[in-house]
Amino acid sequence: WVSGKRWARSHEEFSTISAAVTAGGRLFYIVDQSPNAYISFNPTWKLVARDAHNGLKLWERDIKKWNDHMRQFRSGPAHLPRRLVAVDDAVYVTLGLGAPLTKLDPMTGNTLHTYEDTEWCEEIVLYEDVLYLLVGSSETRRFGDGLYEKGEPRMRMERFLVAIDTKTNEELWRKDAKGEDYIMPLGVACSDGRLFYHGIQ
Q: What count of other Cβ atoms lies within 10 Å of the Cβ of residue 132?
């Protein structure tokens, strides 16, 4: 119930949500809006913004190829929820599985900036006006059913951790994250003025 009125049901109640965050009185989430009547329907992924107080839809953006619901159980990718970050004045997201990082206006959904050389950005951490991005797929050796059989975007072999100033959109530094310096997925975090990541050594 909202303001004494019951929300109308929609198919989104029963759809798959891949990522969800909130900031500035708004909700942002990536959802599959394809019909639920038949499992073989192709997914229709969208980034949706709603008013957090009354649930009204503010805008939506298309997500290109994202996740395939026909993948084998627990086959991933596990990093998709870490591809969406929001603050009061910006939304940071990858608008596709192999897409670069994009900065959106949280009020309108319009693109404010697309960050070069960030294709296959796998994780986004925002800390004290600096974006820390783990770029390059951790699934380069994955084979099997699902997206690999259905035109999944080509994975980049390069993998690195990069810091970007959100005020100037300029790159501050980058660190190699493959080979002996490989950085594990789901392992980047910031706290108390420090950056932490999970390596293999």
A: 19
Give the integer Cα–Cα distance in Å for 183 and 114: 24
Which residue type sits at 77?
P
> Tokens standing for 109?
């959904």
Phi, psi of 83, rounded to the nearest 5 degrees: -105, 15
**Residue in the structure block whose two tokens are 């959904």:** 109
* Contacts with 117 (C-beta within 8 Å, 6 or more apart), sequence order: 100, 135
Highest mean pLDDT among 60-64, 140-144, 145-149 belongs to 60-64
Radius of gyration of the chain (CA): 18
The pTM (predicted TM-score) of the whole model is 0.86
Mean pLDDT rounded to a whole number for the chain: 85
Strands (E), 14-147: 17-23, 26-32, 45-51, 57-62, 84-87, 90-94, 101-104, 111-114, 121-127, 130-135
Q: Which residues is 2 bridged to in the sheet?
A: 5
Rounded Cα distance, 150 and 11, in Å? 25
In this model, does residue 79 exceed pLDDT 50? yes
**For 121, phi and psi rounded to 5 degrees?**
-65, 120
Q: Does the structure show a pLDDT above 70 at 80?
A: yes
**Three-class SS state of 7:** coil
pLDDT at 127: 97
